[in-house]
């Protein structure tokens, strides 16, 4: 092999090494910029959606806690007074269905009707609430009243340390989705995760 050929091959190898090094550096920088951009977009989306959903979540929890406190100080045999209270609370809760299930198997529901054979004591939301001292949020399930996917917020009603029933509020998943879309500034897909 002549000297010129050796120099040409060495030069070609150096060019190839330089090309691949520069291509590697550029692709890494491009990857890094894309990664940072995607992370920023995701964080903006999470922040944008979290604020209205958290406010809405806090409002439902606050309404249930205050209503439960009032119910604990009421005569639970006075259906009219309890219905009036639930009607008043229901008025301020958009698209959320409020109801009270009692230990005798009865249900008080300000909006709509209760199915004839409905016994709250057999429902998971009621059972979970009965054994829990805090506000409970269920996993999504098919609601027997509306036949929609809902999440139930519920809290136990105690009088003199005795469990008397559970106050529940069903929130349709479509309401959560509508709220998220309403507060979305772009046409991005929105996913809900149950963690």
UniProtKB/TrEMBL annotation:
CDD domains associated with the record: PDC1_MCP_like (cd12913)
SUPFAM superfamilies given in the database record: Sensory domain-like
UniProt-listed InterPro entries: Sensor-like_sf
Protein name, entry field: Methyl-accepting chemotaxis protein
Organism: Helicobacter gastrofelis
Lineage: Bacteria, Pseudomonadati, Campylobacterota, Epsilonproteobacteria, Campylobacterales
């Amino acid at each position: 092999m002549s000297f010129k050929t050796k120099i040409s091959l060495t030069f070609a190898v150096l060019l190839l090494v330089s090309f691949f090094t520069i291509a590697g550096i550029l692709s890494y920088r491009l990857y890094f910029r894309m990664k940072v951009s995607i992370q920023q977009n995701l964080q903006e989306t999470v922040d944008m959606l979290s604020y209205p959903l958290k406010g809405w979540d806090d409002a439902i929890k606050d309404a249930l806690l205050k209503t439960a406190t009032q119910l604990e100080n009421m005569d639970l045999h006075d259906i009219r007074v309890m219905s009036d209270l639930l009607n008043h609370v229901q008025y301020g809760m958009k698209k959320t269905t409020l109801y009270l299930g009692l230990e005798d198997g009865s249900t008080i529901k300000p909006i709509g009707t209760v199915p004839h054979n409905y016994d709250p004591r057999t429902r998971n939301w009621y059972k979970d609430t009965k054994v829990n001292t805090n506000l409970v949020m269920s996993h999504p399930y098919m609601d027997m009243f509306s036949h929609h996917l809902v999440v139930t917020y519920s809290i136990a009603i105690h009088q003199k340390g005795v469990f008397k029933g559970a106050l529940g509020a069903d929130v349709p998943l479509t309401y959560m989705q509508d709220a998220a879309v309403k507060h979305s500034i772009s046409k991005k897909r929105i996913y809900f995760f149950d963690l």
